[in-house]
Amino acid sequence: MYTKHMSKKKPLADKERQAFIDKMPKDQVNPKAEENFEDAIARAAQPKQSKSGKQVESDSYSGKQTHSRKTEDT
After folding, report:
1. Mean pLDDT, consecutive 10-residue segments, the chain of 74 residues?
2. Distance CA 14, CA 8 (A)
3. Which residues on adjacent β-strands are paired with residue 23?
4. What confidence score (pLDDT) does residue 42 get?
5. Residue 30: how many CB atoms within 10 A of its CB?
6. Residue 55 phi, psi (nearest 5)
7. Which of 9, 8, 34 shows the shortest CA–CA distance to 21?
8. What is residue 11's predicted lDDT score, i.e. its pLDDT?
9. Looking at residue 38, what is its pLDDT?
10. Cα separation values, 60 from 5, 30, 63, 64, 69, Å
11. Which residues are 49's β-sheet partners?
């Protein structure tokens, strides 16, 4: 079962997380953390692009039959 490898620690509550951040040395705090997070969310929301730069159509139906329907092929 995958849970036996999971940590027994509980996630921090919002107040505990903020207290942890407030206690960190200033040289370890990323001043652009919120901006970087928002940029990452915006990039993740963009449609996937191919290497050539053209937008990739995902989950589109081509209508092309890829498998034979003959009984001797099964």
Report:
1. 70 92 90 92 86 60 66 60
2. 19
3. none
4. 93
5. 10
6. -70, 135
7. 34
8. 86
9. 94
10. 39, 41, 9, 11, 22
11. 55
Tokens of 74: 């099964």
Cα–Cα separations (whole angstroms), residue 52 to 10, 49, 55 = 44, 8, 9
| Token digits of residue 7 | 């940590």
pLDDT score at 74: 55
Reported pTM: 0.38
DSSP string, the chain: -GGGGS-SPPPPPHHHHHHHHHHS-GGGS-TTHHHHHHHHHHHHHSPPB-TTSPBPPPS-------S---GGG-
